[in-house]
């Protein structure tokens, strides 16, 4: 069975750092899923292509055919990668508008990997105080690691590797959620304690 991943990017320019981050998150996720034996299909949704249709949808309540296709790809996907530029310390209006036109509960229970881009590192917390609560309201399951990329993360010595590390960690968590595997953490040293009698016997003189 093919695992379908919808990749939503709210970048406004072409080329766009937001789309670039979305591409890298998608590539890393596909690599993780394929390593686990899954077949993967990626559906990319660039919201800039649907800006007018989104405004019309807000006014009429009905999506145009191209927007309907994009909505169906997102709603029908096994997982969602959603990346927005950060404007005024929050997600973009275009990003929010897309999720406003979805039917209630259409993303309930869906695994989501959230990402964002911005000019400086100061906006990174927008992922936690704006983007994550949005998907929590939509009852989606957002993976623990959200990925923020500032302008300085692209190509700077050491910074690009740090971004790659965040992408890989987030993609691993996302793939695990999609595949339905239990999350694994470090072993608890108290799960199988050594009985006190054994500890005492080990210290007795022989």
TrEMBL record:
Q: Does the keyword ATP-binding apply?
A: no
Keyword NADP on entry: no
Question: Per UniProt, which keywords does this protein have?
Answer: Flavoprotein, FMN, Oxidoreductase
- Domain of life here? Bacteria
**Looking at the Swiss-Prot or TrEMBL record, what is one Pfam family this protein matches?**
FMN_red
Record domain NADPH-dependent FMN reductase-like: where: 3-154
Entry-linked PANTHER family: FMN REDUCTASE (NADPH)
Protein name, please? FMN reductase
Species this chain originates from: Nocardia rhizosphaerihabitans
